[in-house]
Amino acid sequence: xxxxxxxxxxxxxxxxxxxxxxxxxxxxxxxxxxxxxxxxxxxxxxxxxxxxxxxxxxxxxxxxxxxxxxxxxxxxxxxxxxxxxxxxxxxxxxxxxxxxxxxxxxxxxxxxxxxxxxxxxxxxxxxxxxxxxxxxxxxxxxxxxxxxxxxxxxxxxxxxxxxxxxxxxxxxx
Length: 173
Description:
CATH class: Alpha Beta
Order of helices and strands: EHEHEHEHHEHEE
Number of helices: 6
Oligomer: single chain
Number of domains: 1
Strand content: 15-25%
């Protein structure tokens, strides 16, 4: 049985998105890709193009860099939605100087109310040194709190390191 909420956590370029995509492919349901990245520059565009090419056909992409609620509320039980990624979503809100606690609460409510199965990708940013500047420290703390909340609501939580998934909570399908 596919977990209703699967949380995939890992470092940058750890293989977490590829692993999440494979899980969604296994579901047999209608595949939705909820993209949180904003097209900021050529580097971002290249990464987005790589992700699209890797996924291939059969995915519906919804761009939602800030508000995930409308997309999540429109999905039914016949869908599986990959949110990639919570880190970009958080960064968008932080840079826009939005109320992070309020936005996180809205996100958690939307996840809870969503009828579809969800696979949520996020970065683990707490394994490094203490950042030098205040914005980076604020981001690291907010990301840690968001990851704790996402892991708590997940039926299955997986840490991906060097492309290797390690189940932290629950069971994979």
